[in-house]
Amino acid sequence: MANHVLLNNIEHSDLRVITQRGDEFGDNLWFSPTFVDEMRSVQAHYPIVFHKDQNTAQFTPVALFGFQQQENLFLQSSEWDATYIPLSVQRMPFFIGRQDITTDGVTEQQRVITLDTDSPRVSKTQGVELFLEYGGNSQYLEDIAAMLETLHHGLQDNEAFVNTLISLNLLESMTLDVTLDNGANHQLIGFYTINEDVLNNLSPDNIVQLHNAGYLQAAYLILASQVHFNDLVALKNKRVARGQ
Predict the structure, then answer these.
(1) Is there a contact between 27 and 89 (Cβ–Cβ < 8 Å)?
(2) 204-213 and 215-224 helices cross at what angle (nearest 10)?
(3) pLDDT for 77-100, tens place per residue?
């Protein structure tokens, strides 16, 4: 169970965060959320698809790391075999919380940094310090704060992006059938992608609408990222050959 607490330099002055990668640190992720402004970096390494939440029916663009739950094919021992890791993964075990702040009798909600103290990344003996000797933020924590701010705005903007795609009938369900070198068959289902035929036949006005919103490039980046399904298959074959 996660235990999210408001991060502060008094109670947590001696805490460190392990930045090493591995299953034991929660990196055995099947996929993780991404957002429009991150897609140029993400599509260089991972397929980008849309995940539909079964409870809310909400679509979220995600970077795909494997073909099944708890499978991250980019994990090699203690290394993540890609030069870019999505911000939603990099920020762990930190999250954005809300806190009521009252100034001159007016109460407003402000974003604050919370920490999952039950995360296997949190330690008192290993990892990167969060605070300096006299209580100031370490450079690592400053970088995390900036990352969380970027991630917050990016994920918020996903709603408008997805709503635009839906309004133009640009999302379609996808099925990927994979046959491995050893003859095993795998099927990736339950995700969505951009309908390329619909995209290519949009009216000029709709193309302009997508372009002005910054979504046209994102749509093509998502389509271009599909080439990395081949990379996932190759990584899966290597893992199977090693008996993992």
Answers:
(1) yes
(2) 90
(3) 788 999 999 999 999 999 998 877
- Bond before 61 cis per omega within 30 degrees: no
The answer to whether the beta carbons of residues 38 and 45 sit under 8 Å apart is: no
CB 15 within 8 A of CB 141: no
Please list the residues that pair with 33 across neighbouring strands.
Answer: 62
Place of tokens 């035929």: 197
CA dist 64 and 73 (Å) reads 10
Residue 215 Cα to chain centre, angstroms: 18
243: pLDDT strictly greater than 80: no
Distance CA(228)–CA(221), nearest Å, equals 12
For CA atoms 176, 47, 45, 60, the dihedral sign is negative
Q: Which helix (H) or strand (E) holds 89?
A: helix 87-90
Long-range contacts of 162-167 (CB under 8 A, 24+ apart): 162/50, 162/58, 162/59, 162/60, 162/61, 164/209, 164/210, 164/213, 164/215, 165/59, 165/194, 165/215, 165/219, 166/59
4-6 and 106-116 strand pairing:
antiparallel
What ranges in 110-214 are assigned the alpha helix state H?
Answer: 139-167, 196-200, 204-213
- The pLDDT tens digits of the residues spanning 27-68 come to 999 999 999 999 999 999 999 999 999 889 899 999 999 999
Across the strands, what pairs with 75? 80
Mean pLDDT of 136-142: 95
